[in-house]
Design goal:
Blueprint (H helix, E strand, L loop, with lengths): L1 H61 L4 H31 L8 E4 H18 L3 E6 L6 E4 L1 H17 L5 E12 L2 E10 L21 H7 L5 H11 L3 E7 L3 E12 L12 H6 L9 E5 L3 H14 L2 E5 L2 H10 L4 E5 L7 H9 L12 E5 L6 H7 L4 E4 L4 H15 L1
Parallel strand pairs: 2-4, 8-9, 8-10, 10-11, 11-12
Antiparallel strand pairs: 1-3, 3-7, 4-5, 5-7, 6-7
Helix pairs in contact: 1-2, 2-6, 3-4, 4-6, 9-10
The protein binds adenosine-5'-diphosphate.
The site of adenosine-5'-diphosphate has 20 residues, from helix 4 and helix 6.
């Protein structure tokens, strides 16, 4: 009996302890939020007078001054600008911590965003004789929906550091496609440099606010140690991740993976349906037709599927020729969009098999339109020779796609 009473007492104690801990946690979180709000408000207030200081120093430097006075003013201007940057960083971090950052969702061009950042850094890089490499995978789409300003800020920080910590060699930005989920594509950015690198033992503290690798580099290169902390918070707010690899003395690479909403080019992408399309359908109802897309590249597959759905067609997909053959044996499909180079069985061999009655597909004479990245002379001929009906070169324009589909569906009916 005593044992049972003891147990009840233990549970009561535990509950009390949990409650006390929760209350303490709530108080700490509230205090942290209050601190962030205070910092956010204060840095905001500091900006206005700082603009006055920097602006006036700027005007003063344009007036007639002795050489010595010019030096004094230049020092005021430089310190003022540094202070404005620090205040801006603190404001950003405080805003993020106080949950006050609202991300924008507007359409932007990936390539223009990168070009803008590189153009800002070009003078500094050129002054140091650094080569800049800009490698955006050509097959990547250009339009996305998201917060271009924040992406710009992240890239400016990472590329700015790359320039700052590199005295010779090159800096580069590479963008490759990652996973596609729903209508989002993960962009994989890597920002590399051939600079001083970061000691292995310091990598873990890079993304912590106000941390710098060592104070001698701080004196040499300047900065507050806030840029990477802000970048990390922003990347995570946008649903992404950031990481780093570095070899001391040889250089560093920062990796950012960011899922961004895909935008099908609205000029060409069927919003609303072009009038030519309405005429070209010759009265057929797209919903009555099923189109099979055979394409191994996840991203291209997604884009084609989106376009076809917008045009009103039903779709099936296959990521290689063998899977396509299986579907064509079992399902009622009216037309095939066929990528040419694919693993397992490429588009040419798949077409040849579809055309042979002994393969057993439901319609050996089904219209097949080739989709290929190669728009070289002779490609179209090769597609036709191997039994395809027509040919579309990437990047696919939605109106052209609609016209070709209509043409071949009408001929087949
Ligand atoms: P800041 O550059 O303003 O000091 P950051 O948060 O951007 O702040 O960077 C923190 C520290 O990380 C830098 O001070 C530097 O020591 C190190 N660091 C960042 N990027 C690089 C790089 N590309 N190469 C070498 N060190 C770097």
């Amino acid at each position: 009996m005593a044992g049972i009473v003891g147990t009840i007492q233990d549970i009561t104690d535990l509950k009390d302890l949990q409650l006390t801990l929760k209350q303490a946690k709530d108080v700490a979180e509230q205090a942290n939020r209050a601190k962030s709000e205070f910092l956010a408000n204060m840095s905001h207030e500091l900006r206005t007078p700082m603009n006055g200081v920097v602006g006036m120093a700027e005007l003063l430097s344009m007036s007639e001054l002795s050489e010595e006075q010019q030096d004094f003013v230049a020092a005021i201007k430089q310190s003022g600008q540094n202070l404005v940057k620090i205040i801006g960083d603190i404001l950003d971090l405080a805003k993020i911590e106080a949950d006050k950052v609202e991300l924008e969702h507007s359409t932007f061009s990936l390539r223009s965003t990168i070009d803008l950042v590189l153009s800002l850094l070009h003078p500094q890089a050129q002054a140091k004789g650094l080569i800049i490499f800009n490698r955006v995978e050509p097959e990547l789409p250009d339009l996305f929906r998201g917060d271009a300003g924040r992406l710009n800020q992240i890239l400016l920080n990472l590329l700015g550091n790359a320039v700052k910590f590199t005295s010779q060699g090159s800096i580069s930005i590479t963008v490759l496609p990652g996973q596609v989920t729903d209508n989002r594509l993960t962009l994989c950015f890597s920002i590399s440099d051939t600079g001083v690198g970061i000691p292995h033992t310091s990598l873990h503290k890079l993304f912590i606010p106000f941390s710098q690798v060592d104070s001698s580099t701080t004196r040499k290169f300047g900065g507050t140690g806030l840029g990477l902390a802000i970048s990390k918070q922003l990347v995570e707010l946008m649903g992404g991740t950031i990481s780093v690899e570095s070899v001391e003395g040889s250089g560093s690479t920062f990796f950012v993976r960011l899922p961004l909403e895909l935008v099908v080019d609205t000029d060409t992408a069927c919003q609303p349906l072009p009038s030519s399309l309405a005429i070209a359908t010759n009265g057929h109802n797209p919903a009555d037709y099923c189109i099979l897309v055979v394409e191994d590249n996840e991203l291209n597959l997604k884009v084609l599927e989106l376009m076809l759905t917008k045009l009103g067609y039903r779709t099936k997909t296959a990521t290689d020729g063998l899977k396509a053959l299986e579907l064509l044996k079992t399902d009622a499909i009216n037309l095939v969009l066929m990528d040419c180079s694919m693993p397992v069985l490429d588009g040419y061999l798949t077409t040849a098999k579809i055309r042979k009655p002994e393969t057993g597909t439901r319609k050996p004479d089904i219209p097949i339109i080739a989709i290929t990245a190669r728009a070289m002379y002779g490609d179209k001929e090769k597609c036709i020779q191997t039994g395809m009906n027509d040919y579309l070169a990437k990047p696919i324009n939605c109106t052209e796609l609609a016209d070709k589909i209509n043409l071949w569906l009408n001929r087949a009916s």
